[in-house]
Structures are given as structure tokens and as C-alpha cells.
Amino acid sequence: MTLVEHLEELRSRLFIALGAIGLGSVIGWFLYGPVLQLLQNPYCDTIENLPSGNRPPTGCKFVFTGVLEPVIIKLKVVVFLGLFIALPIVLWQLWAFVVPGLTRREHPGHRRRARGAGSPRVPARPDPPQVPGGGAAHRRGHRCGGGPGVGEGRASSDREAAVGAGPISNLAQ
User: Fold this and answer.
1) HEC string of 106-139?
2) Domain count of the fold of the chain
3) 11 is in which domain, residue-wise?
4) Is 124 domain-assigned?
5) Tens digits of per-residue pLDDT, 119-133?
6) Does residue 18 sit within a domain?
7) Is-contact 63 1, C-beta < 8 A?
8) HSE on the CB side for 136, CA within 13 Å?
9) How many angstroms separate the CA atoms of 31 and 19, rounded?
């Protein structure tokens, strides 16, 4: 991609993210009353726990010192609510812009399985079952059939017949 194409991609992603924040802010406008009440509750609880001589004369209401302060606070709360509501879309747009520029090694999809913190490490392929006295044929999945098997017909001593005729049991003698 050329630089101009990258800038066009960035512009389109920013417009989508800003549109999502704007739509979230419209939803936040209707949620302003309950959210302001939620923000006021700790303040009101603290005021009620104060001795009666130390309580402010306005009670539990916020005090605005400027003419535009209530409007500015409402706009700030509404925009932050919109950002909170639109955050999944904003993060998705950021991710969709960054991922094509990552190398294969940096890209998180190059691993087969992502591990979270504290998750157990599970081997990709379990170890094959251990066959007593089994050699290379057993590791390849060969099934011994009707011929002499482990401890049958070729044991030179009773101990070898009891333990098995594998290479490790021969070292034990």
C-alpha cells in the first residue's frame, strides 16, 4: 500500500470510530440521569454520615459556580458514556488498522493456540502409551500378533520372563 492508501484507510477507520462514539453519545444522553445519580450516591452517603454541624447547606446537591458549568458537565458525562458504549467498535477499528502492518512473527494468529495467564500447558500431541519391552516396532504402532511376544518363548531366565525381554530389562541383569 502507498502512503496515500494508508491515510485513506486511517481516515475511514477514524470516521467509523467517531460515528460509533457519536451514536454512543446519543444513547448516553438518555442515560445521563441514572449515571449522574450513580455518581452522586457516594457523595450523598458521605454527607449523611457527617455530623449535622459539618454538613453543607445545599445538602446532597452539586454546587455549580459558573453559568455554563452544568451544561459542560452534562456534555462531558455524555461523551464519556458514548466512548464507553462504543469502545468495542473503536478498539476493533484500531486493531483492524494495525494488524495488516504486522509481520508474520508479530501477528498473534501465527500460533495455534493462545494461552491465557495461568492456563496449563497441554502438549500438542500426547506421548504414546508405554509398552513393556517394546522397541521401535511398538513406537511405530506395530501390533505383535501370533509369534512369541514379550516373555514368551525367548526368555533365557525366569527373571527375564517375569520382567520382559526389552532392552532395558537386559541391562538390569
Assistant:
1) CCHHHCCCCCCCCCCCCCCCCCCCCCCCCCHHHH
2) 1
3) 3-98
4) no
5) 555 555 656 666 666
6) yes
7) no
8) 0
9) 18
pTM summary value: 0.57
Q: Which amino acid is at 120?
A: P
DSSP labels, the chain: --HHHHHHHHHHHHHHHHHHHHHHHHHHHHTHHHHHHHHHHHHHHHHHHS-TTTS-TTTTS----SSSHHHHHHHHHHHHHHHHHHHHHHHHHHHHHHGGGS-TTT-GGGSSS---TTPPP--SSPPPPP-TT--HHHHTTPPP-SS--TTSS--SSHHHHHH-SSHHHHHT-
**Higher pLDDT among residues 144 and 46, named by residue:** 46
